[in-house]
Design brief:
Layout: H1 3-18, H2 26-39, E1 43-47, E2 51-56, E3 60-62, E4 71-72, E5 78-79, H3 82-88, E6 93-97, H4 100-103, H5 111-114, H6 117-120, E7 123-128, E8 131-132
Parallel strand pairs: 2-5, 6-7
Antiparallel strand pairs: 1-2, 1-4, 3-7, 7-8
Length: 145
């Protein structure tokens, strides 16, 4: 059967484009635009001017005045996975690990942690198991997104 190797090749090419390996094809560029349009109402674009990533709406816990230009209206440059984007932009963005109960708004994030955020001047993004997560309720009153 020749169909299975063809499907595997297409899947491999698509995954390599998603994770930044290989050249970006016209098909993946169209898919990227569609995915951005589809998820823009549920997501926030974070950009450093040459790369960008998406985080869920409600995941930005703290947004300093100095970093507001990092919230993009449109994607600029290359789409990067969350972990890669954060590793390249450690100087202005940081992840705050939360529990599911905190994400659900049942438990508050420790005030000792939240009081430290303004001293760093970094965008703080809530993560659960190293992936951005929406925080609802009183725990996410610092940043409105």
């Amino acid at each position: 059967m020749k169909i299975i190797p063809l499907i595997a090749t297409v899947l491999t090419l698509s995954l390599s484009n998603l994770f930044g390996q290989g050249e970006q094809s016209a098909v993946s560029a169209k898919s990227q635009v569609y995915a951005t349009q589809k998820s823009s109402s549920q997501s926030i674009i974070l950009t450093d001017g040459s790369n960008w990533t998406l985080v869920p709406r409600g995941s930005v816990l703290f947004l300093p005045q100095e970093q507001q230009e990092k919230i993009g209206k449109r994607p600029v440059g290359n789409l990067l996975p969350w972990k890669k984007f954060v590793s390249l932009n450690k100087s202005w963005i940081s992840a705050e690990e939360v529990t599911l109960r905190q994400a659900e708004g049942i438990h508050e994030i420790d005030p000792r942690r939240t009081s430290y955020w303004p001293k760093q001047d970094k965008i703080m993004v809530a993560v659960y198991l190293d992936a951005p997560i929406t925080v609802t309720g009183p725990a996410n009153q610092t940043a409105r997104n």
